[in-house]
Design a protein that fits this description.
Elements lengths: L8 E9 L2 E6 L5 E6 L5 E3 L2 E3 L1 H11 L5 E7 L1 H4 L13 E5 L4 H7 L12 H14 L2
């Protein structure tokens, strides 16, 4: 979706792999392992988190651009283990764990899109239209 938009995005994307998650800086395209089931840092819930990756995320959120993207807001962020909130400003696209959507929606003026496998293309079109209108 980012590649199909003419807007200038910055922030973080996450990608699952068999033992955990990578994070990717939207601007630089650099990736690193955020968390793993293998011991790589401090343990939070079922994963071990790399503190260098958390610094990497913070640096990516300090970059400039038109629209912030953060994928994904989870318990680490909500419980304050990761200080992202000082960087979140509108316009932004926050990908949020399903069970945390109501909490995050109560904090920000939002449009919530629920993702289902069968309607991903329609959702992509709707989000791209919304992004084109963001100021």
């Amino acid at each position: 979706m980012i590649a199909q938009s003419e807007r200038d995005f910055y922030g973080i994307l996450s990608e699952r792999f068999d033992r955990g998650y990578f994070v990717e800086d939207v601007k630089t395209k650099r990736k690193m392992i955020l968390c793993s089931k293998d011991p790589i840092g401090f343990k939070f819930r079922q994963y071990y988190f790399d503190t260098e990756a958390m610094t990497f995320i913070e640096e990516s959120l300090k970059r400039t651009g038109e629209i912030l993207v953060y994928d994904e807001v989870g318990y680490l962020e909500v419980e304050g283990k990761m200080g992202i909130w000082k960087y979140v400003k509108e316009p932004a696209i926050l990908v949020v764990r399903k069970e945390l959507v109501d909490l995050i929606a109560s904090l920000y003026m939002t449009t919530v899109y629920e993702v289902f496998k069968e309607d991903r293309e329609q959702l992509k079109t709707a989000v791209l239209e919304s992004v084109a209108e963001m100021k």
